Amino acid sequence: MPELPEVEALGRFLDAHLAGRTVDRVHPVSVHALKTYDPPLGAFEGRTFDGAGRHGKFLDLRAGELHLVVHLARAGWVRWSDRVPTAAPRPGKGPLALRVRLADPPGAGFDVTEAGSQKHLAVYVVTDPREVPGIARLGPDPLSGAFTLASFAGVLNGERRQIKGVLRDQSVLAGVGNAYSDEILHAARMSPFKPASGLREEEVARLYEAIGATLTDAVERCRGLAPGELKEAKRSGLRVHGRAGEPCPVCGDTVREVSFSDSALQYCPTCQTGGRVLADRRLSRLLK
User: What is the mean predicted confidence (pLDDT) over 89-98?
Assistant: First the structure.
């Protein structure tokens, strides 16, 4: 799933490639992906992009008062081409969800795609990004000045959930998902199932620093990369997520995994749980 660092890089790439360029055609291919109907997608045709950015994990492509907002969900991506096909794509069961063709220079543009059979990618056309429900409920961006140690400590005070779930909650922290929450907790030397309300002051500070350092490092690894290079850049930079069975790069212990119905987390017992191996949630209660 694209998270804050990858969406930040996609936003920078699109900002550099779209600003000042006019839209020729917009082809909505997946009806299920389009979540708004007024203004229509066709309202972008003939308009000039001002630039692109992000809100959490949402891409925001700006053209005057209109915003083309895209949430890539678990398996969505953006594919740039200097020459997209001129023929209108046919709706079907393929990965293509949206195609934008530019008029200047003729033929350049990008596709928004979604792999797999579960289709959760979402496209919105709005005049204010806050009209998108997911953006309206976002918490502070962890790379912004609004995210301070004091504000983070305030959120955790009285929080009954385990810290892994808190970090993934977009209303608490915008842009962090399954992969980077694993990486943050590994950097903070903290169990993913530690109750958030039980963190000591020193642990809150350590976790806050790990959030900033982990995401900043990931953003820097992605800087200047084309969309097609970002997935590998993410994979190569991960220490524990997706690396079950491999040695921890910090201590050498074996990275372990806890599986859920539709996802999994990875952690290092030595670095994070005092050497204890967490039980698989599908089989028994988790060890704290």
Answer: 89
pLDDT exceeds cutoff 70 at 284: no
Average model confidence (pLDDT) for the chain? 94
Total-model pTM: 0.94
Give the residues across from 102 on adjacent strands.
23
**Residue 69 pLDDT greater than 70, yes or no:** yes
Query: What pLDDT does residue 20 have?
Result: 96
